[in-house]
Structure formats: structure tokens, C-alpha cells
Amino acid sequence: MALSIMTHALLAALLAGAVISDLRSRRIPNALVLAGIGLAIVVHAIAIASGSMPVAGRAWWAPLAGLLVGFISLLPLYLARITGAGDVKLMAMCGAFIGAGNVPAAILYTFMAGGALALLFMFGRGVAAQTLANVRFMLTDWVVRASNGQGARLEPLQTTAARLPYALAIALGTGASLLWPLSRFTHGAAA
Fold first, then answer.
1. Contacts of 176 (CB under 8 A, 6+ apart)
2. How far apart are the C-alpha atoms of 68 and 91, rounded to whole Å?
3. H or E element at residue 148
């Protein structure tokens, strides 16, 4: 139990560092992410060696599976230029701590937190008009390309409304997934 609390506290501290960095510079340091991945593996090994239940799961490879699932989960958003590479790497680090089975809940909660954060950011910063203009442009461009038989693709916008510090959404989503795992809801609904 104490090791689980320590693991959660360590993850929270790393996420807090990522959020602070993202808010200040819109960057998440690679050193923080790599240190977090290393710490996730070490804490997992300590839990297995001591006979405790590791947060990521019982298998020795659970942190690596979580890392992979976390990385793959946000990779399409990075390829579509919706998130940054740091966000993808941060989600991979979270996956190493929480395991592959918990990553889908973390992603779902992250998207919910990201949507709420985007709305707050959009209206709080006064960038609603530019955001709506960008959405209109992207949809119009997509419809024109589709009607001309061209494949729909996202082009980089000439003017962006603002960059969202997505580390905050990842931190909130990961925290929510640990507090309210989806398995609790799906198993409760089946009973």
C-alpha cells in the first residue's frame, strides 16, 4: 500500500513539473519524461521484488506495455498536428506508471479535460473568433477536397488561435483515471 502511494505521489510530482513547464514555455522537457519512464520501471521492479501489487500490473513488462499504449494513443493527434510531441511522450510516461489497462481511461478523461480546458482557454483568452474561423476554414477545405475527389487532409493553419498547454489535460485525465477507473463503471453496469 505504501509503495502504491509513493508511486502515485511520484507520478503526481512528475506531472506537476510537466504542467508547470508547459504553462511557462509550451514545452515538456525530454529529461523529465525520460526520468519519469526510468522511475516507473524502477518502482515497478521494486513492487514486484517486494511482493506488492504494482500499479502498472503484475507482469514484469507491464510498464513497457503501458508506455507503448500511451504513446500510440496520442500519436495520431501528433501526426495530425493537433498535439505536440511532448504531449505524446508525456502520455507514454503516464502509461509506464499506470499500465496498458488503465491508459484507455486516462485517454478518455484526458480528452474530456482537454475539451473543457480548450473551451476555458478559448473564451478566457478572447480567441473564440479566431478558433471558430479556423474550424470553419478546416471544414470548408475538407468539403472542397472531398467534393473534388481529393483525399481529405489537414493542412497547417496560417493563423492559429492559441496553443493549449495539454500537459494539464493529461495530468487531470491521468489523475481521474486512477481515482475513477472505467472498469468500476463497466463492471457495475453489467451486474
1. 105, 106, 109, 112, 113
2. 10
3. none
What's the pLDDT tens digit per position in 40-70? Answer: 999 999 999 999 999 999 999 999 999 999 9
Q: Each residue of 132-152: pLDDT tens digit?
A: 777 777 778 778 877 887 765
pLDDT digits (tens, 9 = 90+) for 66-103: 999 999 999 998 998 888 999 999 999 999 999 999 99
Torsion over CA of 127, 129, 132 and 134, rounded to 10 degrees? -80
DSSP letters spanning 92-145 = HHHHHHH-TTTHHHHHHHHHHHHHHHHHHHHHHTT-HHHHHHHHHHHHHHHHHH
Q: What is the DSSP letter of 56?
A: T
C-alpha span between 187 and 119 (Å, rounded): 32
Are 11 and 175 spatial neighbours (Cβ–Cβ below 8 Å)?
no
The Cα diameter of the chain in Å comes to 63
| Cα–Cα distance, 128 to 151 (Å, whole number) | 29
